[in-house]
Amino acid sequence: MDSAARRWAELLDGWIIPDEILFQAPEDPWAITPAAVAPPVVPDDTPSRRLAVESLPAGGSVLDVGCGAGAASLALVPPAGSVVGLDKSSAMLDAFAAGCRARGVHYQAVLGEWPVAASIVDVAHVVVCHHVAYNVRDAVAMVVELTGRARRRVVVELGAVHPSVALAPMWRHFWKLDRPRGPTAGDFLAVLSEAGIEPVVAQAPGRRHVHATAEFVAMTRRRLCLPVEREAEVAEALQVLPPSPIEVWTFAWPGDA
Q1: Cβ atoms 189, 133 nearer than 8 A
Q2: How many helices (H) does the chain have, and how many strands (E)?
């Protein structure tokens, strides 16, 4: 029987965009702007935040893996007194640093990709990793390194299904291409169990997007590998085929640093 980790990797491979479509893409289809993931001024009261705060001492440290603009870690300030953000995008790290300065928190921004860059960051009381797992083929290496960098707790957040599942009707509309359904949060849980980790698991409703915004239309158009002159078509299709919100799952388990 295939292992959970192998199944995870094989299901992720199903999301590879066919070459005949990818070669027509005028921009990186997976690009996300910092503005699209900017942290709210007042943190949302989510299971992920609550589970992280439970393990954070006053003035404690947080490592944010795949930090983006810092939504996961800056939601923990306070009680966190220092945060380290790691991301493969320098633009995201610039936004993360700006958010840290605005909140007056000690920070370090590290350019790198997990799990390869795990060795270049220090351990922290809490390690958070939000909406990154579906980008990592080697889920076991990801989990092992997260655990090894946390003194108290690891908190991972991801959608119940791959984020691109919500755009499956749009792929059929524009390219007549059927997209896969997996992997899912349940598959990630199976990887954790296979690695000997029995996490706390919590679910929360997904956020409903305002599909008419220019930001969302442009992101969807990039995802679909379409040129900018087709944004009006994408906006029209989004009104007919709006993506449904995806439930959010949180997994938390002890660190061993």
Answers
A1: no
A2: 10, 7
Gap between the Cα atoms of 5 and 194, Å rounded:
8
Question: Helices 4-13 and 139-148, interaxial angle, to 10°?
Answer: 120
Query: At what angle are helices 185-194 and 139-148 packed, to 10 degrees?
Result: 60
The whole-angstrom separation of Cα 77 and Cα 99 is 11
- Write out the residue range of the structural domain in which residue 46 sits: 4-254
Torsion angles phi and psi, residue 230, rounded to 5:
-105, 10
Q: How many domains does the chain have?
A: 1
pTM above 0.90, yes or no: yes
Give the CATH number of the domain where residue 236 resides.
3.40.50.150
More confident residue, 82 or 42: 82
Residue-level length of the chain? 257
196: left (phi over 0), alpha (psi -120 to 50) or beta: left
Residues 147, 197 contacting (CB under 8 angstroms): yes
What is the structure's pLDDT at 1?
Answer: 40
CB atoms within 10 A of CB 35: 9
DSSP state of 59: T
Instruction: Give kind and range of the element (H or E) at residue 156.
Output: strand 150-159
Closest CA to 128 of 161, 96, 153: 153
